[in-house]
Amino acid sequence: MLKYYVVDAFADNIFEGNPAGVCIMDEWISIEKMEKIAIENNLSETAFAVKEGNAYGLRWFTPGGEIDLCGHATLATAYVLFRFVETNADVLHFNTKKINHHLIVTKKDDLYEMDFPTITPEKYHLTDLMVDALGAVPVEVLKTSRDLIFIFDSEDTVKNLTPDFSKIKQFPEGLSAYVTAKSEEFDFVARAFWPKINIDEDPVCGTMYCSLIPYWREKNGLDKMVARQVSKRGGTVYCEFCGERVKLSGRAALYLIGNICVDEK
């Protein structure tokens, strides 16, 4: 039996932000079993963590398979550990298993601050397929080693996009498609689409900000920004540019505690 939690990450209240499944384990189970648990949970990510020395090994699985970096499920895992396991700690270290990133989460009152690598995007070209898929024409297209980023000149355009997810799946590049624009109330707004791994829209995508923070910092000169993910559930992300690292902060709310009966017949 595995102890299982569901936490709404980047949420001021329950039913906001991005729900993540969290399994804190004594030892690793098979990748096949983690994949099946993620499919059964049917959340955008389920995180699995095992204590290894002074840090935690960490893996994330979507219903479509393992992913190399995930912000909201890291925040959710840290929330569970701070609240139920490492109750006297205010800093946690994670070593990721798919790609060897070292991640740090610091508890600051009710905020959880994550220290992640900066991912600087590069300019990319716009295609007719992209315009057809998104239903609007971006002013700029960027690309990281994993994802595509589309810059729009209107916050309302980002909020009102109704993409054709079957066409996004046809993009030859980009595991995900991020859209973003300058905001009046916040420093910028964004949305994240992941149909290639069976997640049409991620309610709040932490890793997206690893690439959006350096982009918007170059545009507005601000090292500290407040972003809003304008998905249906919505979520607020407090952002800080620190050179080769970025800091992402948010709140979390506990939704569920239970047991996964993986070994029962």
UniProtKB/TrEMBL annotation:
Record flagged with keyword Isomerase: yes
Top-rank EC class of the record's enzyme: isomerase
Active site: E45
Record's GO cellular component terms: cytoplasm
Pfam families, alphabetized: PhzC-PhzF
InterPro entries: Phenazine_PhzF-like (IPR003719)
EC number of the protein: 5.1.-.-
Alphabetized UniProt keyword annotations: Isomerase
Gene Ontology molecular function terms on file: isomerase activity
Domain of life of the source: Bacteria
Similarity comment: family membership: Belongs to the PhzF family.
Name of the protein in its database record: Putative isomerase
Natural source organism: Peptoclostridium acidaminophilum DSM 3953
